[in-house]
C-alpha cells in the first residue's frame, strides 16, 4: 500500500484528501505544520508528499529544502498561490509538481499516479530511450533503439539541455534552471533560447513533433521528460 503524507493546515482540505485517498487504498498520514511534516517524513518516509505552501510555522519552500537534504521522494505542491513566481520557486526548490487550489480531485489523483509511476532519477550516466532512439548519457551518443540505422547527431548544447530532463523522468524542470545550467545565470530570461532548442530536439527525437509525447512543455514554467 502506497503511503501519502498530506501537509496542510486547512481541516476541510485535509479531510477531503484523506477520504479520497483512503477510498483508493492509500495509506494516509497528515501534518498541520512544516515541523511535524519533517519529523513524520524522517521517522517513516512516505512514498509521496502533498504539500501546501502556506503553513503556520514554516514556509512550504523551507519544508521542500529540508526534505531535499536527504530524500528525493516525490513532492506535489497544492496551493492557493497562483503567481508564476511562487510556482517556479517551489519547483526550483525541488517540488515535482504544482497544482493550484481549487482543483478537481481527479486531476490531483492523476498527478499522484504519475509521480508514483516515475522511475528513479538517474544518478549515474546511463541510457534512456526516447521513441525510436536510445541515448547514452555517458558517451553522448544517440543510436536507433532497433540497432539498425545511422546514429543521430545532437549538438553539445542539445545534450546539455537534454541531460537534466532525462535524469529526472516525469519531473518538471523549470525554464530558469535549464537556462542557467546551459547558458549561465546571465541568460535566465532568454526563454526564446529554450523554445528554439526544444523545438529542434522534438524535430529530431519525437515521432510527431507537432504533438510531442516525450518532451513536454508546461507553459510559463518549464519542461518535463515523459518516458
From TrEMBL:
Subcellular location: Cytoplasm
A molecular-function term among this protein's GO annotations: cis-regulatory region sequence-specific DNA binding
Keyword Secreted (UniProt): no
Single GO biological process annotation from the record: positive regulation of DNA-templated transcription
Keywords: Cytoplasm, DNA-binding, Phosphoprotein, Transcription, Transcription regulation, Two-component regulatory system
Gene3D superfamilies: 3.40.50.2300, 6.10.250.690, Winged helix-like DNA-binding domain superfamily/Winged helix DNA-binding domain
Record-listed 4-aspartylphosphate modification sites: 52
Name of the molecule in the record: Response regulator
Organism listed in the record: Actinacidiphila oryziradicis
Amino acid at each position: 500500500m502506497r503511503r501519502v503524507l498530506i501537509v496542510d493546515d486547512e481541516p476541510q482540505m485535509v479531510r477531503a484528501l484523506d477520504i479520497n485517498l483512503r477510498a483508493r487504498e492509500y495509506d494516509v498520514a497528515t501534518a498541520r505544520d512544516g515541523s511535524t511534516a519533517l519529523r513524520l517524513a524522517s521517522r517513516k518516509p512516505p512514498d509521496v508528499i502533498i504539500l501546501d505552501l502556506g503553513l503556520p510555522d514554516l514556509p512550504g519552500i523551507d519544508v521542500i529544502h529540508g526534505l531535499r537534504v536527504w530524500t528525493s521522494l516525490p513532492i506535489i505542491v497544492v496551493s492557493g498561490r497562483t503567481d508564476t513566481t511562487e510556482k517556479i520557486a517551489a519547483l526550483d526548490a525541488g517540488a515535482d509538481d504544482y497544482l493550484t487550489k481549487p482543483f478537481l480531485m481527479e486531476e490531483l489523483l492523476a498527478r499522484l499516479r504519475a509521480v508514483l509511476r516515475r522511475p528513479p532519477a538517474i544518478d549515474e550516466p546511463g541510457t534512456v530511450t526516447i521513441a525510436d532512439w536510445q541515448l547514452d548519457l555517458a558517451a553522448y551518443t544517440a543510436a536507433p533503439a532497433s540497432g539498425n540505422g545511422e546514429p543521430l547527431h545532437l549538438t553539445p548544447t542539445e545534450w546539455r539541455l537534454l541531460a537534466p530532463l532525462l535524469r529526472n523522468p516525469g519531473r518538471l524542470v523549470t525554464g530558469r534552471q535549464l537556462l542557467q545550467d546551459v547558458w549561465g545565470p546571465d541568460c535566465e530570461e532568454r526563454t526564446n533560447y529554450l523554445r528554439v532548442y526544444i523545438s529542434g530536439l522534438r524535430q529530431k527525437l519525437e515521432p510527431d513533433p507537432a504533438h510531442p509525447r516525450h518532451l513536454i512543455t508546461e507553459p510559463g514554467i518549464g519542461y518535463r521528460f515523459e518516458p
